[in-house]
Model the fold of this input.
Amino acid sequence: ANSKLANSSITLNGSAVSLGGSATVGGTNGSLFRATKGGQAFSNNTWTKVTFNGETFDADGVFDLSNERFTAPSAGKYRLTANMLFESHNGTGDAYFLGYKKNGSFTNYTYHDCGNYSIVDNWSLMIDDVFDLSANDYIELFAKTQVDNGTDGYISGGGSYSWWCGYKLIT
Done:
């Protein structure tokens, strides 16, 4: 506990407000990880689990490279963010998707529809969310492309292009 806050008061709009008791300020974000990937091809118009081949850090061993998933070590709220660089097929009407599955079921996804832009080489897509997880709940990342010409999708590798990270929030 922070002794400077114990039984203190502040002034709000000219009136004293008692804080009463004590409060703890600060804490440590736990279960911090960042996974990186190499390139990955996948079939057009098919949700495919994103694979990873390395970790920049994994403080509590919460990301398992063998099954490509984050597993919550304890109950709480977790923020997870992923960025993937999709290689374009230079076709109009292409769309790129990233989605999270919790314990095997989709929770949400984001996408970018390229519309009539056929001159762009690549699209970077990010997904970010906060999950209320129980101990041993797991999250997986999935990707999909919808390409008019039927060409398979591809995510570029490299830690600065395509990565997934997360941590437990202080609550």
User: Anything to note?
Assistant: The chain has a mean pLDDT of 85. The CA atoms of residues 72 and 136 lie 5 Å apart.
